């Protein structure tokens, strides 16, 4: 008898922790042409009293729909041909409107289905901004590499692609590790020579320090504050002595801050054995001047 009681209590707790509503049924009402969802509210009422909605289930449904509806906005960018590709807005669930509609539809005693409301998320960088901040070239720097070293070249290309088209707004910080991300084989990075404690060894992502060093030499100018930079433990051949910037995941980073009153744009390319970084901003850009006390 005790075993049966314990089992019943266990099943009751499971019911409370994991509502029986099946969210898989939600997708049956997805309209691909309209990119919208229709929700059947019948599973979200109290079984003992169909006059009331089960708001525990509604909250779980809300979290589920937030994941389904969310779409990250896409910034405008400059393609390989120099053409500006227009931004695309993102979407998120309009939670307040969602709950309002649930009440209106259910208590209005109409068909218990509703179209899920979405809010638009504007892209951070739009076409007009991108056009404006490529008006004025602040600086550029080029380094060379051997294309025949396939693994190292691939790593340089991936890291270069990651920093290309990055926009740093006034007062913002740029972190190389944050922008480029972890260098793993799953993300396409290959084993290549790296410097560890003054000695050459093999490591995933070898070669990306050439990208960070090229970037450092391009942004090391008035109006950009270098906030984090570390030198290699031995000289590297692709930049002058003392002009390198080593980076590693879970280790040294290269970072700087934009002190202009306008955004900065990083354009980076790696082809034909040359890695180039160009820094742009708008014609109206000026450096923030500290106010005198």
UniProtKB/TrEMBL annotation:
Source taxon at top rank: Bacteria
Q: What is this protein called?
A: VanW family protein
What organism does the record attribute this protein to? Oceanobacillus jeddahense
Taxonomic placement: Bacteria, Bacillati, Bacillota, Bacilli, Bacillales
